[in-house]
Amino acid sequence: MQYNNLGKSGLKVSQLSYGAWVSFGNQLDVKEAKSLLQCCRDHGVNFFDNAEIYANGRAEEIMGQAIRELGWKRSDIVVSTKIFWGGQGPNDKGLSRKHIVEGTRASLKRLDMEYVDVIYCHRPDSCTPIEETVRAMNHVIDKGWAFYWGTSEWTSQQITEAWSVAQRLDLVGPIVEQPEYNLLNRHKVESEFLPLYSNYGIGLTTWSPLASGVLTGKYKKGVIPPDSRFALENYKGHLIGFVVTTNIVNLASRSLVDDVLRKVDGLKPIADELGVPLAQLSIAWCAANPNVSSVICGATKESQIQENMKAIDVIPLLTPAVMEKIEAVVQSKPKRPDSYR
Ligand SMILES: NC(=O)c1ccc[n+]([C@@H]2O[C@H](COP(=O)([O-])OP(=O)(O)OC[C@H]3O[C@@H](n4cnc5c(N)ncnc54)[C@H](OP(=O)(O)O)[C@@H]3O)[C@@H](O)[C@H]2O)c1
Predict the structure, then answer these.
(1) Residue 178 beta carbon below 6 angstroms from any ligand 1 atom
(2) Region for residue 112 given its phi and psi (left: phi exceeds 0; alpha: psi -120 to 50; beta: otherwise)
């Protein structure tokens, strides 16, 4: 396993990491979590991601208990969590100083840890001045509850604003952004964020390298394997935050659209030609981007981790010729129906 600096910071994170979203608390409890976490460690993973919202806090409890029972040395690992959605009350969400401080303390309690290495603002909060958030994140660091702070799914403009506030006040700015990045979703990482890498040394820990499993090729039109994420009752309709009625996005039907399945079908022969599973090709493609510090993977089975970790060996196979073939598939447009011609 390769260990990359997290952006311009001195923190080293494994090129592939592991996150708790969906799986911990919905699909796995402590016993299974322990085996999966150990399997990751055995492959050299040192970075583990979580969030206060995951399984409404249960994911942090599971990760904390599993790590405690595994007896790992705390300094050997990098643990992160994310603050934004902490509960139903008006002050239980967002990036106010109140929720950042209370949310961080509650996360640490659930994790049963004195600190996390990295703490993220899980989304931007248009209702709180960025200065309040920057000051609160610096307070969290000064208190020793986190060593570094970052953002997740912020725009380039919002990150730039956070940095200009930090520089004006002689405070610490965000060192990392956590965006979605995979073969089906790449605009922010490859275009919008470009100035952030050189201007601020922002690192990336990217999420959903397999687009929730779609880029394994296991989902077909109308076919959802019963033991998969999209078969889960609460992820057929993915709950964002705690707002049930208006913010439900049907993750499965949003993901399994014709254009996506067509691209997945087009990528499969490229993986076959290289003699590797599509999951490995997809993860390797993310990790090959030099601006990506760590690709956060998910898995519900040890066999998935065993398979996905081999993606490291696929990176050297991504020659310019292979990348060109991949581009031709992912940039391709669906055929226009005859009636449009
Ligand atoms: N910041 C954010 O807003 C945000 C958002 C989402 C995720 N994240 C972070 O990113 C992490 C990874 O995201 P993700 O879980 O969506 O990653 P992903 O790699 O896109 O999907 C992982 C899921 O795909 C399936 N899978 C993985 N490997 C497979 C294989 N080899 N064969 C077949 N199925 C396989 C498993 O689900 P099943 O077995 O259940 O099908 C697994 O849980 C999360 O845990 C979280 O830490 C952050």
Answers:
(1) yes
(2) left
Unique residue bearing structure tokens 């998935």: 304
DSSP 61-74: HHHHHHHHHHT--G
272: left (phi over 0), alpha (psi -120 to 50) or beta: alpha
**CB-CB contact of 171 with 131 (8 Å):** no
Tokens coding 106? 């509650």
Residue nearest to atom 38 of ligand 1 (CA): 228
Q: What are the residue boundaries of the structural domains of the chain, listed by start?
A: 3-217+277-318
Residue 256: how many CA atoms within 13 Å on its side-chain side? 20
Is 53's pLDDT higher than 90? yes
Give the model's confidence band at 340: pLDDT under 50 very low, under 70 low, under 90 confident, else very high: low
Q: What is the pLDDT of residues 22-49, one digit of tens each?
A: 999 999 999 999 999 999 999 999 999 9
Instruction: Give the C-alpha separation, 146 to 41, whole Å.
Output: 22
Joined tokens for residue 30: 């402590």
**Domain 3-217+277-318 classification at class level:** alpha beta
Cα of 18 from ligand 1 centre, angstroms: 9
Answer yes or no: pTM beyond 0.85.
yes
**DSSP string across 58-106:** HHHHHHHHHHHHHT--GGG-EEEEEESB--SSTTSBSS-HHHHHHHHHH
> Which residue is listed with tokens 């691209």?
263
- 310 touches ligand 1 (CB under 6 Å): no
φ, ψ (nearest 5 deg) of residue 47: -115, 125
